[in-house]
Amino acid sequence: MTLSSFILKNALRNRRRLALSISSVAASLFLLITLQIALRELTNPISDEGSTLRIIVRNKVSLGQPLPARQRQVLEKIPGVAAVSPFTFYGGLYKGDEKFTSFAQFAVDPLRTRELLADARIPQEQYEAWVASQTSCILGRMTAERYGLKVGDRVQFTGQIYPCDLDLTIAGIYQGTADDRNLMFHQKYLDELLGNPGTVGTWWVRAASIAEAPLVTERINRAFANSSAEVRAESERAFVLGFVSMWANIKTLIGGISVVVVFALLLVTVSTMSMAIRERFRELAILKALGFRRRELFAFILAESFGLALAGALLGAGGAWVVFHQLDIQKLTNGLFVMFEVTPRMMGLAFSVAALLGVLAALGPMLTVVRTSVVEGLKTLD
Amino acid sequence: MDIPEPIVTVRNLSKIYAQGEIQVTALNQISLTIAAGEFLTLMGPSGSGKSTLLHIIAGVDRPTSGECLVQGVDVTQLNESELADWRNQNVGFVFQTFNLIPVLTAFENVELPLLLTRLGSAQRRRQVEAVLDLVGLSDRMHHLPRQLSGGQEQRVAIARALVTDPKLVVADEPTGNLDSRSAQEVLGLLQSLSRPAGKTVIMVTHDPKAAAFGSRSIHLEKGELTR
Q: CA A252 → CA A139, A238, A256, A367, distances in Å?
């Protein structure tokens, strides 16, 4: 027998309680990781190489206010601007969806899309077919797979913002962007359906280089200052984060739930360790009498507590990693979440929480061992 | 005639417990000498201080005043850590309720004190097997405590007390939970440890029949030696 096998035998003496305790820790850490992923996905916009170059230009009054189509000529002449396209959020309801369609539809200029969506991969013939047909569209791979759509299929949308419906033919399927969900169609088609109002929702601008992107943003804002349609230009990331800020205290809410989860976890672990040590109070006194010193008894308690927390972390965090790698989260959440990725940082967080719990849960029993003399412990025997 | 060296010398030992505002004198100026190889029995009514005296000699309790020299070492002056080492090397404990670790086999229970030593596993095995053989439990070494009778459990406890080869064995009511036959076996075993094996055995008991196994008996009453 070794000291480690002695610790293991002690830890396994009440297997049902141990299994339940490990399961509690695992379930709590699984929940903690899930919350952290959700928080990350909601508050951290997905970004790719192209997103650092892209600038969204919207009406300074509000996002709902359209911009004059004539601004395009001005935008294209601003130094550092490489490409400009309308970027109008149609926001329609896909046939079959009752309340919510999980992918966005944007009216754009197809001729500029390749420059703006540099990460997107689409077969040349599909791209050309899209450019050639005004009633065609291109669709992200994720959405195509989710709805079982393919090139040549027709898709219809009921307008929720604009007083017109869309009837589009899929000309191509793109992939390779950070978010392969969106549908893009011709701005001209939307203009015709709306009677050529001469407006766009927003502008999508590509800066010539990353270094110039902030300067371009500033120049655009300045170019339309004091005009009838002042604009607010911002990086794509800042634009998306603006949406997130509309979710109010989502961070506080998820953070609060996470704290409660960790606290519950602490109570479970402390309770388990307290019970385990109380049961063995007399044995600890015997071990002391036999010559075991405080530090050895501390090591026993700490090892057991730490082992319990670590086993829970392996099961909970490891389980989360396996589950979220296997599940099609986008499908399960109707497209609300795309990646749902367990990052090394989250695994680190889960294991750090477990390690901290292991230590905290051991403190109480360790204090009891310090306070109790051998004689007091022996008195509990008879 | 040779006079055996004293292994335990107790001088003016007092122990006062504070229970709230009330002070209880458990031991009052006790002085005592125990020779090496003696089988001393401590007798007296409940609350007479016999277990307290045993605990102080064994280094698991501290007196309020006085000296307690065991093999020349004043155990009252050792700190917690030194005392733990000293107990491991010099004292074997036998308790009324056996106090074996239920998840460990007889062999592992006996091996437990040796985990604190620098002995290798082969040497530990030899020592454990030797003491289990001494108490007649070679054939039960892989049994868990629940698979043993009370008498066998107490013999395992005695083997555990002997495995580090201590000079001093202390036993607190070792036959209190045993039937008369098992009690006789255990007392016989403790008796065989004293003069023939050179161990000093100090045993607390209420039972005059058990005390008869000792080479000397002393009585305590209200914390004082009466005879």
A: 35, 20, 6, 35
- Interface predicted TM-score (ipTM): 0.89
Is there a contact between A291 and B89 if contact means CB atoms under 8 Å apart?
yes
Residues B20-42: pLDDT tens digits? 888 889 999 999 999 999 999 99
CB contact under 8 A, B115 and A294: no
Task: Please count the residue pairs, one from chain A and one from chain B, whose beta carbons lie less than 8 angstroms apart.
Answer: 73
Question: What global pTM score does this model have?
Answer: 0.71
Rounded to whole angstroms, the Cα distance separating A180 from A178 reads 6
Rounded to whole angstroms, the Cα distance separating A217 from A235 reads: 7
- The CA-atom distances, in angstroms, between A68 and each of A59, A65, A193, A345, B174 are 9, 10, 17, 45, 100
pLDDT at A64 over 70: yes
A13, A282, A292 member nearest B99 (Cβ): A282
Q: What φ, ψ does residue B143 adopt, rounded to 5°?
A: -90, 145
Within 47-76 of B, beta carbons closer than 8 Å to A belong to 55, 58, 60-61
Instruction: Confirm if A111 and A146 have CB atoms less than 8 A apart.
Output: no
Identify the sign of the CA torsion A313, A316, A318, A320: negative
Pick the CATH number of B6-225 from 1.10.10.60, 3.10.20.540, 3.40.50.300, 1.10.1060.10: 3.40.50.300
Residue A329, domain extent: 3-45+248-379
Contacting residues of A for B115, CB less than 8 Å apart: 1-3, 6
Of B56, B12, B3, B7, the closest CA to residue B204 belongs to B56
Cβ pair B55:A293 closer than 8 A: no
Give dist(CA A123, CA A146) in Å, integer: 20
